[in-house]
Amino acid sequence: MALTVNIYYSGTNGNARKFAEEMVSSGTVDSIRAEEGNIRYEYFFPMNDGETVLLIDSWKDQHSIDVHHASPMMKKIIELREKYDLHMKAERYVSDENGVPEADKAFIRE
Fold it and tell me: From the CB of residue 83, how many other CB atoms can be counted at a distance below 10 Å?
């Protein structure tokens, strides 16, 4: 059962994007992606909101997230959030072990 957390980072003056850029340039993103249990860690930029960045953060299970939250990388992430004065909204999803239903596959072009 994979868990995905969508985190919306919002700020002013482009700070959310600067945060994401520093997360990448500092190597923190690569370190997180290399953690045991990480499935996905990617930033996206909403077209209709230049002051928000979406992080899609997926993990194998709750234990993997707990280990990540206890890791030294969390200190770095928290420092950068503070540096850029970001606010957050989070959504949490549990994967459907059955995958995409056959009825929905007709609408997906691969």
Answer: 12
